[in-house]
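Give me the fold.
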Amino acid sequence: MTNVEAQISNLANLANGEMQMFTPIFEENQDVYGYFTLFKLDKLNENEEKYEYTILDKNLNKVANGEFVDVAYKKIYSRYYTPEKLGSTLLLTKRYNNTTGRIAFTSSRLLNLKDNEITEPFYFENDLVLKGNRDISTVKKVQRDREYINVPVAANNGYLVLQLRKKIAKKNPLVLKFYNLDNEKIWDYNFGGDERWSFYRAVSFQDDVLYFTYSTRDDNQRKKEFLQIDANTGKLNFRYALEHSNSKYSYSYTTKKIDENTVLTGKISPYSITGYNRNKALGLFKIVLDKDGNEVFKKHFLWEDAEEFIEMSKKGKMDAGYKLFTHSYFVFNDNRIVVLSEKYKIANNILLGPHVKTEDFILFEFDSDFNIKNAKTIAKDMSKFSSSDYLFGQYLNNEKDAVFFYQDYQKEEGTKDKNWILGIVSIVDGEVNHEKIPMSSDDYYISPYVAKEGYILLREFNKNSDFDKIRLERLNFY
């Protein structure tokens, strides 16, 4: 890696308060726009807290900062969701809840990146968008009886309001509502069905379409459908029957829209009315749908089909009892797919009880017809008590290539000490390259973050938080 000096050398100098958040800001296509920091400055009184935010662009130049005052409710805790970018606007949403979860609600603001103006808070109640904060004297009584939490999610230069069911709810929410940035409702969509047995799940939002799964039950028949909805109009583009009572498999998947087609890829397990079971995974699959939802390609890949490249049982077991946990599906624009998985198992210890062990990464490489071309092992040391060493990944070169990053703690020869290693694995022009960078420091903790294409952001900070430096590093394959 090649060092690129940062414009901001010390995050701790951006504000005097307690840092609540440092996180990337993503464009709607998942490119990195920049970074958002949030500090809690002061508690002004029993019911008001003062915050300061700073926005850095992808080159770490400071482009905006400001302050705002937010409400605090006694014995109700709060945290901000990661901000979502919509054109030149950031959606900031804060979730409030008590320890039991009986009281739970959200409040949002919009931050204009052009003029650095931030709106007063607003929230959703039934079909209304209300400005300001909830009444402090009645909020607990009112929210205790609410069955759903309204959560705005960025999509198509506006936001969907999704309803999350609370424990006291007896019915599932089945209506979507879409608002523009002026808080005007543009459309709603009703999935229909029996509210007791039907429910939907958001899958992904891409370009001007929204993807959902919709599960229903009619007598003893169960069905799971994959839906594409037009984000501009709220009209159903298509529905595709993914699972039903006579299906062979249940599916866990990710989606990607390539031109007018939709690609679904993921894992399969034996069909169950409860859905996919990762402990019984049998292999992988790829389905391609056209713009009308017609199936133009479907293929399953069973674990034993990989025997030319790697030893696995029909049930996905490998040496020493390891199985594969999948972290990412890289679906390239030429329809090739690379599946990134990590070997894991649940081990038992007399003193510690059950705990997770992870080992090497495995890359399954498929051509556009979902024929396996290779299964490459990315070696790393065993990790105990960590659910994963995977950090994050991103596409490169207009989604023709990809890179992912991981952490590894390698033992020093002759000692029990371990060095913190940053692993970088690139998939460029069909070639897999692996680089390991020593990151250990006696003085600082080093944390990597996703950055603009061809770079990684490294944050160095110590326990006392009087040193908190960020810098960009250029990756060698660029």
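The helical segments are 139-144.
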